[in-house]
Amino acid sequence: MAREIEWTSQKLGDGAGYDIRSFDAQHEEELFIEVKTTDSSKYQPFMISDNEVTFSEITRDKYALYRVFDFRHKARLFALEGNIHDHVNLQPELYRASF
C-alpha cells in the first residue's frame, strides 16, 4: 500500500481538492489528505479553497485535513477528519468577478 501513496498536488496541481492520496491502513481504504501548515500556533486561521471544502463534503468518510503547526520549532500536527464544516467556522474571503 505504501507504494500507492501519491502526492497528488505535486503531480496534478492544486485543483484536486486534496494534497495526498493515501490509505487508512486499519480499514485498507483510500484516504484523501489536505495539509495546512503554519509556523504559528495550533489555532492560527488558515486559508482553504471552495474546492477543498466541497471535496471534504463529498468524501467525508475518506477525508482528513492535517493541520501542521509550530513548523520551524517543534512541528506538531492534528487531524480533522470528515467534512471540514464539522470542525471550523468558514468565512468567505475571496470572490471571482466575471462578466
Report on this model:
It contains three helices and four strands, in the order αββαβαβ. The chain has 99 residues and is α+β, with helices and mostly antiparallel strands. The chain has one domain. β2 (29-37), α2 (50-58) and β3 form a beta-alpha-beta unit. The longest helix is centred in the middle third of the chain and has 9 residues, at 50-58. The termini are far apart.
Strand content: 25-35%
Q: What order do the strands of the largest sheet run in, or round the barrel if closed?
A: 1-2-3-4
> In the residues, how many domains can be counted?
1
Low-pLDDT residue spans: none
Mean pLDDT: 89
Element-by-element helix/strand order: HEEHEHE
Radius of gyration: 14 Å
Summarize the structure in short.
This protein is of the alpha+beta class and 99 residues long.
